[in-house]
Design brief:
Three copies of one chain form a homotrimer.
Chain A (H helix, E strand, L loop, with lengths): L9 E6 L6 H14 L3 E4 L4 H4 L9 H12 L3 E5 L7 H6 L26 H18 L5 E5 L14 H15 L2 H8 L26 H29 L5 E2 L1 E2 L8 H5 L6 E3 L8 H17 L5 E5 L18 H11 L2 E6 L25 H13 L14 E4 L2 H7 L10 H13 L5 E4 L10 E4 L7 H12 L3 E5 L21 H4 L1 E8 L4 E4 L6 E13 L3 E6 L8 E8 L2 E6 L1 E3 L1 H15 L11 E8 L2 E8 L5 E12 L5 E8 L4 E7 L4
Parallel strand pairs in A: 1-2, 1-9, 2-3, 3-4, 4-5, 6-7, 7-8, 8-9, 10-11, 10-12, 12-13, 13-19
Antiparallel strand pairs in A: 14-16, 15-16, 15-17, 16-20, 17-18, 18-19, 21-22, 22-25, 23-24, 23-25
């Protein structure tokens, strides 16, 4: 349970009472009760209202809101309000405005207009956090702290002189000597040798490709600069309210922040999910995948869906409304994948500002609207699901996700550009379509609970990660690696002598060349005539101990292996030298999965998701119908109470379009 | 008549003698006579020649030009020459250079490189205007003043510190208190509250969407900053030469300037029209539509086509020449729609500079060219049309065009991006294709002369406008409103409680949701089976007193009205909840138009335009054949003298490709 | 022979030992011997290693490398190392960083981050050059000097204040008086008159099109600024080592530098060729065309292919490897077109830096790789070709390539954008496909050796060039000119009175109008009915003495000539008023070529190249099969020794895919 103060599924949204006159607040309380709201994220963008002039704090209005919430049985996920500094900060400290690679400042008028290394910003943010903690530490409405908001979503990099100076200190701490930095950055190339720390700059606009190690370290530095802001606030809050959990809202596969690192500093993972209602299978699959990533960040601990849209958003080219039932379905999908809280942005749709066309739980049209009715219905329905709280997902399959490798992979100047996330999705989808749960792991993490671990394009491979993989396979694990893996070390320096470096013996092969985007490329299974299309990439492989499961049938590399399997220690290591068409891979993996004893939650038609959450003695089967038609399912061995209807189900069950069922069964001795 | 000094159709062009040696001037005079030129726009880009060093004025060459013109019977639309400051201004006053949202200055080397709020520019421009007025106030060649040139065409916004300071003053005058500004701008959103006027900035580069009210007010401020420049010059000119009309050249639907506002300060509306000769029906329809807008700015008063190309322009990706006859046809189209002057850019094609490949009335090849022959023939021909001067167009249909609403509509962060002008064109074309004249009106204007007024996407609706509409309908008018109307007030703040706000009772309905870009959307007429495609947008409508004329047959809003009609007071109010395919709307409107007694000028084949200009006792029917084949027309009740040929026509008339006829008939008691 | 020191085909690559520990150097020497390397380009990016702090030179490591090379029989094309300044230069002299048109600086982190007019850069570069010359002037390994590297490849224009000041001086020297500059730049247009030299700026960001003469002169100024850098280094080197040839590496049709001008200052032309291995016929034809241009720069003198990729590059979106045999084939193509040296970037593939995925002669995988095997095989094979050194190509056809005209043509604001190089390629391909050798000439050059000279879009035509053309034709030459030629003088000022100006009598016609991108345009041969598609452009021509060979059959210019021929003096002048489809032109030119007695080297199937290099008494026929299948050729009159196999060939010869043969025959009395 996330906090003992709220032993229910969290339900509510961002609450910005400062945008409305106080008489609206009273209406808010009535509507929150009607909608079953039990938690609101309060004051996220209220810094300028809390501190209208430097050092002049005005908390009375927030006092009244907090009191009113407490009176109405609603708890607060109280913000530190540091996400958007007041205009006076920019006026007093123009150097606090962030600067891009071309030297252009970002100005106030939007939000997040602060340099992550600005001393003035850091001091003011810390002061405000301290004041808020002090003011509300004992308030009965306080349930959780909401640090800042979506760190880095607009400004994930600043290139100003303050950052440059800080970067040099960060580099000094990392490399100790300039000699070491020159070696690690490969500055012998293009005459980039540094003779003085002060010569080093952020990767600003350069005439030609900027040094990749410099770029990579700047990504690390910026990730850590932002994390330092979060840590500074967390530390203040924990000193004052040691028992109140802290969170900040993540953004799924957001590239600039290494959330595996961030999650260690937070009590609760929470995140914001905005699938496109028009997006179809790709979007709901991506939502599922992202939930699984978020759940994995803290080892499977339930997370909070901190923001989703009640209906439309405002920032796409076309902002489709969620159709009737769609918001409910996506909410239950989050629960199915491990969420213990379903929250929205925002409670009441704004009248003014850049997000006024973002839908709210209370639309501009008020409570007599389809959207509010669906919100209120869901809020009441969720009250039946206290039992699910804390239940976990037991995955036997893991995908290797590594922000560090991704940062390096997606730099310029590669044989061809490859993106990490689509490769993860390619793998994820193979399992998702079979209702097999998947976790995400780091390359250096503990993989002992998994029967199968897959690492697509693990471009950067550290020695520790290689050791981890070696140990996993030799102890009996099954490991699958994709092309263009094991290429560089942590400074983006290429390993010499063939790939995947450090693991050639484990994989039983050595890669000699890369052929990106091969033309009309096909592979064959040995002894079969069916051509399997492949795309995106070809590693030209020299097999050693590995056996070819498929070979290329075209290109100058015809006859070379496209897919190999190698016995190593007690385990198996597979290598995919190309991207084989998903339907073939799906068929291939099926057999493999069966062999490893990795079973699906339930066999369902395409478009119907089945996920199981478990806790000692109890299992909850979530069934979600994403199809625009009713689907009838064979429940197989599942029978028990369907929690939303309260009825007992077994045998066949029909789900309406957007329909959801949650079947609970008792487990023996769990 | 625009000026008693020139009781003929104006004919001529921009005359830039400073680009040529004086012996060419004498050739110019001969050729002007040959071409029937009676007016030239003189000296528009001659500031640097008139004031080569600050305060050192050199007018002798212009004296000689003016004298020569007078001697040759050509009048001058004399420029104030302030459109492109000399290089010395930038050198002495670098702060006079405009700055974009990213802080980049624009440099000399092109034209219009001045900040509209630059004190140095304003002072120098005023001095030059004063000197010119003084110098030529009594010159016999002076017929009209041409202020500046195409205000804002390149630099319609400057974001410099001078503008920032001026913007604050402008805001102070508009909102009086900071509290009011904070309220109107919705600064409670994203922590944008201002505690001091000095914190306010132009909408420069921001990390996220910039405050929309700030953006909107900046558009107003820039429009007014430029207008202030124009007014300052007009004031100087009127003091010195109270009887000489002043104009500045407009640019049709140019977004940054609210020409309804500007026209009030000018004696004559003039504008520059550059349809693409390769553009086909869309381009000549757009030209007609733009002429009608220009004519509407001063309540139907004849305007001047100040610039058009004799043949090619130089600034498109592909600059097609006007084919033989095309320049003549487009010139007569301007006359048909209310012009009393046909002018060109420019008299003599330049040898050097950025526009040297822009065609001239006198091409680089001289007078022995197709282009000059067509120019000279037209000049002689226009002499037969003195009678048409001052005649007006009597429209019963009006379209609502509102720059303010357009500015707000086209800001970022909407359900989907909608452009105002294509919506006006969609409506315009329905009437244009039937030869029904159309005026443009403002939402708060006097609509009493119109039987039908149409407002597509009138996104911003002020209380005064709503009152105007209510009064119009209740008094018997017929009003059609399109989707996404009545959404926000003048500060882009959303009205609560359903749309179109302030007019729900007039329209008899309330809009609850928006679904932009619906997929495969169709509507049905009640009781009919033909599916009518619709696109772009769906308003989900709850009908009250309104009757559905068509309903949606697909989407989650199936069964909701797509088109409604409501009886209100003595009038009717129609609402279109989607964009129905034009052929259907055209068919629908036909019946409706007949019912309202709005007749076409004449029924003609597609591609042949018929427009009537009238004056007391006389009517002129313009017939224009845009098709590449001859067209034979039934003149119906029209008979009389065809002014270009001098022959009497009745019954059937054949127009050649690009052919034109102007039939005059006497009216009873007009 | 390029240098007596190395009487063999140069073979080697860029050698950057500073990127590797010294034990790798010893391996380098072994592998160089194995690969037949005889020359390396040394130290191109080693400035920061040679002068780690200002004025502190460290040459000992380079001494060791030079000694080791000498010991191993490898010579050095020693770099002046000035292509990428050390980071300290930017720190000490921030003004040395280049600035773009929008005022943005380029920072260190890549390479080439220097303003070409920076005094600090120039002084430091000269000092380093002087030191290097002094240090190695007598070293036995020194064979050639490699000045800088690919001048201008990233930074071909700087717009900073230093450049502005220098530009004014340059203009002062060019135009003497401001009056003259105003006249030549056409500053009477748009009020751009200058009253003081200090008012003149580089063509920075302007609100509208920047003055074209200003843009054009800035291109000249920047070309000369960069050339001045090259000349300064060459002068230092020649003073110290008068007998060592100097070169800098060119980049084919690179637009910013007028290589005809540059070649005069160098002893050897060398260049870098990077065709896309996936690019097919267009890419290998372009490589051939570029070789021919490079060969033409110094009147046919053999050049050096200074850089090519052993396999992949790193800077395309998709970087395909060279397939087996492709690198060898492209190397022999260079030899066939006049190269006496085949070099690579780079010797050993880098582990770090922006180009680490650029292939090397020694791949990351070491010598046990396909790429190294092919490199080593070629190195050994080339040793059989000493006889070819110095042989020349005898062309009877020339194409007019003029950087000055191209700069003007490709400025903005034309009837439509036309690019010069595709027009040259259109012409080139007609001959290339028939194995007819082509040279490139300047418009003012000596054309006496050519039977046929073709000038497509010679937009700018100087009086000297017109005189040259007139003389060529009247003396019996055959000259073909394409549309939009003879339009402007050297200041981009339009000639009046019809085109091609200065040559209307030579061509026997006058162009009155231009119609760019005509729609569905066709031409007809007189008396024939087959329609010949034409595109891109139409000159509307009034024929005088010229005879129409084809006439337009559509458009408003139907009946006007599309292609003309005029007898003038003893010669013929053809004019193409449009772009006729290549197959038609190819057919047309065939007859014409036969008539002029211009024969192909050998008739071959499409995709097989035949080129002849000759020297007194000997001819070498290069045969290159670009097709993916074997091709069997009829050697016709050719018989003799095939140099690669050592066998005597005659009659029929079969070339494998990527196959090459070089047949030598003795000539009578050559």
């Amino acid at each position: 349970m996330i906090t003992a103060k709220l032993p229910h599924v969290f339900y509510g949204g961002d609450y910005n009472p400062e945008q409305w006159p106080e008489d609206v607040w009273r209406d808010d309380m009535r509507l929150m009760r009607e909608a079953g709201v039990n938690l609101v994220s309060l004051g996220i963008f209220s810094w300028a209202q809390l501190e209208p002039r430097p050092g002049q704090y005005v908390f009375d209005w927030l006092d009244r809101v907090m009191d009113m919430l407490a009176e109405n049985g609603v708890l607060a996920d109280l913000a530190t309000a540091t996400a958007s500094p007041p205009a006076w900060l920019a006026k007093l400290h123009p150097e606090s405005l962030p600067q891009d690679a071309e030297g252009r400042r970002y100005y106030p008028g939007g939000r997040q207009h602060y340099c992550p290394n600005s001393v003035a910003y850091k001091r003011s943010a810390a002061d405000l956090t301290q004041r808020l903690a002090q003011q509300y530490k004992a308030h009965p409405a306080l349930a959780m702290w909401h640090i800042n908001n979506e760190y880095g979503c607009h400004i994930s990099e600043c290139m100003c002189d303050v950052c440059a100076a800080q970067f040099r200190l960060w580099l000094g701490a990392r490399y100790k000597t300039l000699e070491e930095l020159n070696e690690r950055w490969g500055t012998a190339f293009w005459s980039q040798h540094y003779a003085d720390w002060d010569e080093i700059l952020p990767p600003r606009k350069t005439p030609a490709f900027c040094n990749p190690a410099q770029q990579l370290d700047y990504k690390r530095f910026m990730n850590e600069s932002l994390l330092a802001l979060c840590r500074a606030e967390a530390e203040i809050l924990r000193k004052t309210t040691p028992k109140v959990p802290v969170t900040t809202n993540f953004m799924g596969f957001f590239k600039p922040l290494d959330y595996f690192q961030w999650a260690q500093d937070l009590d609760v993972v929470s995140w914001d999910s905005y699938p496109d209602p028009n997006g179809g299978p790709d979007e709901y699959t991506h939502a599922a995948c992202s939930h699984d990533l978020m759940r994995s960040l803290k080892g499977g601990q339930p997370f909070v869906l901190m923001e989703q849209a009640p209906s439309q958003v405002n920032w796409r080219a076309v902002n489709a409304p969620k159709r009737p039932g769609q918001m409910r379905l996506m909410s239950y999908q989050a629960l199915a994948h491990g969420a213990d809280g379903i929250m929205f942005f925002q409670w009441r749709a704004s009248r003014a500002g850049a997000e006024k066309f973002h839908s709210g739980m209370v639309p501009h049209g008020g409570k007599q609207t389809r959207v509010f009715r669906e919100i209120a219905d869901l809020g009441q329905e969720l009250k039946r699901l206290d039992a699910v709280l804390g239940a976990r997902i037991e995955a036997k399959v893991a995908l290797v996700a590594d922000w560090q490798s991704r940062w390096a992979l997606e730099l310029d100047s590669k044989p061809a550009h490859l993106d990490a996330v689509p490769h993860l999705r390619y793998c994820y989808d193979l399992f998702y379509q079979q209702n097999i749960p998947v976790d995400f792991v780091q390359p250096e993490g503990d993989w002992s609970q998994y029967k199968l671990v897959i690492a697509p394009v693990l471009y950067m491979l550290t020695e520790r990660a290689a050791k981890n993989i070696r140990g996993y396979v030799s102890s009996g694990g099954c490991f699958v690696m994709g092309y263009f893996s094991g290429i560089v070390d942590e400074n983006d320096q290429i390993y010499l002598g063939g790939y995947p470096a450090l693991l050639k013996d484990v994989m039983g092969l050595s890669v000699e060349e890369w052929c990106p985007h091969p033309q009309k490329c096909v592979a064959l299974l040995p002894g079969k005539s069916e051509e399997i299309p492949c795309s995106t990439w070809v590693d030209v492989v020299n097999a050693k101990s590995a056996q070819a499961s498929a070979v290329f049938a075209s290109g100058y590399f015809a006859g070379k292996p496209a897919l190999t399997i190698n016995e190593f220690g007690k385990g198996k290591a597979l290598y995919a030298a190309t991207l084989l068409e998903p339907s073939f891979m799906s068929w291939l993996m099926s057999g493999f999965i069966e062999q490893l004893g990795i079973g699906p939650a339930l066999a369902t038609p395409r478009g119907v998701e089945a996920v199981v959450r478990s806790k000692p003695g109890r299992q909850f089967l979530f069934l979600l119908n994403h199809n625009p038609r009713p689907e009838t399912l064979d429940l197989d061995s599942w029978s028990g109470k369907e929690l939303l209807s309260g009825k007992t189900v077994q045998g066949w069950l029909t789900l309406e379009p957007n329909g959801v069922a949650i079947v609970e069964r008792k487990k023996q001795g769990g």
